[in-house]
């Protein structure tokens, strides 16, 4: 969501803070701000700007403000519009301390009322400003700074990571973390602070991830770490390797396009990695081989695209490993009745490993002492640290907000895991396991080749035509239904075209009323003959109402293609991998529509890459 970046050390910090914010811009880009202590007299200096980081960086370039202790922020608005006033940093009444924050202070309303009654004057609509004013009040009412801070962190409810700098404490940066991520990069006589280590990977590979419910006092060359009761905590420093090559577009017009093209390779890397850990897979997942053999049910949680991957994977676990599988949206899971079942496994699927809803679901299951595993793309993520076990997809860093290669590698990893579970349970042989790996590679090949087959037609003819439609309908059946949901999400997210998805069989129960020649219907086929015949029937229902149909079909599905106004045909693959085979072309098509519409594809309006608020 929002990103926070900070620096304390022996160098001027403005350049680093801006660079760090630039790398974390995927987390939010509604407004941005910077504050530092003036090296001459420790006065708090700051600048804020509405809109993208470029606006702030232009203003900062023309300004002389800089210092050896500074903080910065890019915002994804939760409380209040994306205005300059609501941009971080926020301040106390005297403008002696400033705060940048990621998360949500849930009791902000009540605290604001108390503070206003006590005479504090607010300048923004944000929950963050409460932190600055409450800290100001507590500094007056407590004898020591540390006592004030302990009371502050315990008075705030919700999930938050914030960094504060103060005129009266010019050699210290204050960091607080509860549920939202925050880490410190340890340099030589300097410390880098950020929501994501990506902000400082070029500076140091020594990282301290703040534990949940902790605060740190950070100076040039030392860190004090405490829990929320004030008890000192050990400093555990990790050495981390991060590939920042992902930050080059390599000749592509957008990161999204580059990432679409990286999928075949990412899938093959994911399979190679899984083959390598095959023999120790259960210890990786934090369960025993016996537990896997006896496994009676699986429950998967995720959000957005990861939830779609999980919905597709449900078919893998039930068809291949014969294991009943439930899939829940993480944001709903925690607030539903929970019936713990023995011999079950809870899988969290998340590209970032930081999504707050999914992370909270993991914590909820952890508290009940049931086994959790994270299927994620980020080795250093909170989900990896907090789950009992993990499976890493090898997508490489995904920069575009719209998930592409993370989705296809999740599908590959979950397909592999379903087969591996089936092998452990004695349902399939090692030879079948090997074949399933081959099937994945074949589907990855089709994913890439189909883009090549159709790319010129899409660019030269279809993108312009389909960009003119204002609304669309997406249909699928069985495993192609969650895939159709993913296609609809992709189109909405990057093109802002309204897209509604239904299971094709549901059409006649209401949505058929929406069909007209102005609303293209995208139909995703299935290789199973029975399901295919049902999909054909559903498509006929659309055509009979003068609907405009675009089909994604498999070789030999002529009847379906003849019904279509536009069709894309894919070679046949393992039927469970049909969605994976269609993934590349689907993404490429919606990408070209969004490009035609001139959308900011990598950073669509109102969205952020990593959603660390509930
Ligand atoms: O990092 P996660 O996979 O947990 O993120 C979940 C969703 O926020 C994410 O998939 C989102 O839906 C994508 N922007 C879709 O392209």
Question: What tags apply to this protein structure?
Answer:
614 residues, 6-stranded antiparallel beta sheet, Rossmann fold, binds 5-amino-5-deoxy-1-O-phosphono-D-mannitol, single chain, alpha/beta, Glutamine Phosphoribosylpyrophosphate, subunit 1, domain 1, 39% helix
SS elements, strand count: 24
Outline the biggest β-sheet.
Answer: 8 strands, antiparallel
List ligands, each type once: 5-amino-5-deoxy-1-O-phosphono-D-mannitol
What is the CATH topology classification name of the largest domain?
Answer: Glutamine Phosphoribosylpyrophosphate, subunit 1, domain 1
Radius of gyration: 26 Å
Shape: globular
Count of all domains: 3
The portion of residues forming beta strands comes to: 15-25%
Q: Going across the biggest sheet, name each strand in turn.
A: 3-2-4-1-10-9-11-14
Structural class: alpha/beta
Kindly, what is the distance between the CA atoms of the first and last residues, rounded to a whole number of angstroms?
A: 10 Å
- CATH class type of the largest domain: Alpha Beta
